[in-house]
Design goal:
By secondary structure, this protein is an alpha+beta fold. It has helices at 2-9, 43-48; strands at residues 17-24, 31-38. It has a two-stranded antiparallel ribbon with strand order 1-2. A hairpin with a 6-residue loop joins strand 1 (17-24) and strand 2 (31-38). The longest helix is centred in the N-terminal third of the chain and has 8 residues, at 2-9. The radius of gyration is 14 Å and the shape is elongated. It comes from Zunongwangia atlantica 22II14-10F7. InterPro entries: DUF4295. This is DUF4295 domain-containing protein.
């Protein structure tokens, strides 16, 4: 099952990266995880936001 999801991220000649970021909720103070699939060049900008 895990191999199938990894293979889906590398479609054709494009390489994609899955970025997971922890975000604190201002209302409850609990942390949630936000996932996004993007090009490897965009990961640093995504994590800095």
């Amino acid at each position: 099952m895990a191999k199938k999801s990894v293979a889906a991220l590398q479609t054709g000649s494009k390489r994609l990266t899955k970025a997971i970021k922890m975000v604190k909720s201002p209302k409850t103070g609990a942390y949630t995880f936000v996932e996004a699939i993007m090009a490897p060049e965009e990961v640093n900008d995504y994590l800095k936001k």
